[in-house]
Amino acid sequence: YGDHRDLHSFPTRRLPICGINSLWHTSHRRHLSTQLGTSHPMVEESEGTGSSQRVSHAHLPSDVRRQWYAAALSADLPKAELGKVGEKALFPLAVSILGDPVVLWRDGFGKACCLADKCPHRSAPLSMGKVNGDTGAIECIYHGWQLDGGSGKVTHIPALISGKAIPSNAASRAYPVCEQNNVVYVWMGPEKDATTEAFCDLPPQDIDDDGMPLLGKAGYVCQYMCVDLPIDHSLMIENLLDPAHIPFAHEGTIGKRAMAAPLEMKLTKTTRGIRGSVKEGYSLGFEAPCNVLHTPPKPGKMDMWQYVNCTPTAPGQMRMVYRAYRNFGTFLDKIPPLRRLLTRVSQKIVFQDYNLLIGQQQRLREKALAWNCAIQVDSLPLVYRNYWKRTFGKTGQDGPWWRGWDG
Fold first, then answer.
1. In angstroms, what CA-CA distances link 114 with 77, 122, 143?
2. Who contacts 149 (Cβ-Cβ below 8 Å, separation ≥6)?
3. pLDDT above 50 (res 212)
4. In the chain, what are the helix, strand and coil shares in percent, each to the nearest 5?
5. How far, CA to CA in Å, does 275 sit from each of 37, 239, 269, 272, 375?
6. Which helix (H) or strand (E) covers residue 354, if one does?
7. DSSP character string of 191-243
């Protein structure tokens, strides 16, 4: 994977059926969720299919609302710049997380801000407005109302008569935000006590097996990517936890048919998730609620740690936020033509997964099963699928998905 800035083929703003527009897809997305959670009975019986060990997902959180989600790369957030107002001002960044439409930007001090993407005046999308360079507030496109990024409260109304107070309910929901690993994370828990809950358990750092932070590690460079995909996040996670697909789905890039071989997946429970290993020194891991880790394929020689946040923007939609830390080919980052070449190769890898997953998703919409049968190497993605069923797979009132502004 490579630099997100050259992925022109993918949209960088919210996809058409995310956010508000996803409501008219309610019956369609319920059907997709039903099929995603459906497997042949023989598949459901065992979490460690074909393996003597059984590793459960029971220790993972059921409440996937009270979690941090990767919303964007830190470098992508527009920052308020003094003197830039009106047409010269920057647009904020629109994102959906679990269906919730949110808007992000940086205030005048560089602090990341996140509000519900709805003006408290007439419900216009705040993401259509601008980041006021003089105040650092977000300014609604409709009537110029300005909202503070920290509190969500309206701080300025151009049409308000002098001496009149700003209405007490003139505010948009403010979401807790933090930055880790050069990624902006948003806390999606209930609004009440959100700040207290959120900062008790911050997103983990990207670390190596020795527990050392990878960001800034001597001898390493990091490639970043952020892209929206019209694929359910669960399908992408299963794909990333499946080493057996690489020789075939990625032939011509990172895979060769000759690499195909019998694989035994050994599972290990971790604090935040589950790891699977098919050979010594190389593992794939899932961390709740929607994160994937790949450890180096050749430890000590060509180290490449890959962290992938598969943020669910809506059922059938996702945002991939990717980091790859490597200690080889570091010179490529300093030579623009070679860096672009690496990026093109990385794009091709993404498209290879995209093409097969969009086809798989179509079959699920046609009432095919998510799992028909499984073999021993499928144990890790199968455990993940069973975790998904008791969390993201719920579409009713007890499910995590956004149900509209009225709740």
1. 11, 19, 20
2. 105, 107, 111, 113, 114, 115, 136, 137, 138, 174
3. yes
4. 25, 25, 50
5. 22, 15, 6, 10, 17
6. helix 336-365
7. STTHHHHHTTSPPPPPB-TTS-B-TT-TT-EEEEEEEEESS-HHHHHHHHT-G
130-131, strands of its sheet edge to edge: 130-131, 138-139, 146-147, 154-156
Closest by CA to 241, choosing from 276, 279, 289, is 276
Q: What's the rounded Cα separation, in Å, for the pair 322 and 157?
A: 40
On whether the CB atoms of residues 32 and 365 are closer than 8 A, the answer is yes
Cβ-Cβ contacts under 8 Å for 179 (sequence gap 6 or more)? 74, 112, 185
More confident of the two residues 28 and 91: 91
**Contacts for 207 with CB less than 8 Å, ≥ 6 apart:** 213, 214
The pLDDT-based confidence of 2 (bands split at 50, 70, 90) is very low
pLDDT value of residue 53: 58
* pTM, rounded to two decimals: 0.89
3-state SS track over 125-167: CHHHCEECCCCCCEECCCCCCEECCCCCEEEECCCCCCCCCCC
Which tokens go with 343? 């990026």
pLDDT at 25 over 50: no
Contact 132, 192 (CB under 8 A): no
CB 318 within 8 A of CB 36: no
Give, in order, the Cα–Cα distances in Å from 379 to each of 56, 242, 244, 267, 373: 11, 9, 12, 8, 11
Report whether 322 contacts 353 (CB < 8 A): no
Q: What is the pLDDT of residues 171-208, one digit of tens each?
A: 999 999 999 999 999 999 988 878 888 888 899 999 99
| Displacement of CA 392 from its chain's centroid (Å) | 14
Model pLDDT, residue 319? 97
Q: Are strands 154-156 and 177-180 parallel, antiparallel or unpaired?
A: unpaired
pLDDT tens digits, 273-295: 999 999 877 889 999 999 999 98
What local confidence, expressed as pLDDT, does residue 11 receive? 34
Beta bridge partners of 222: 325
CA 366 to chain centre: 26
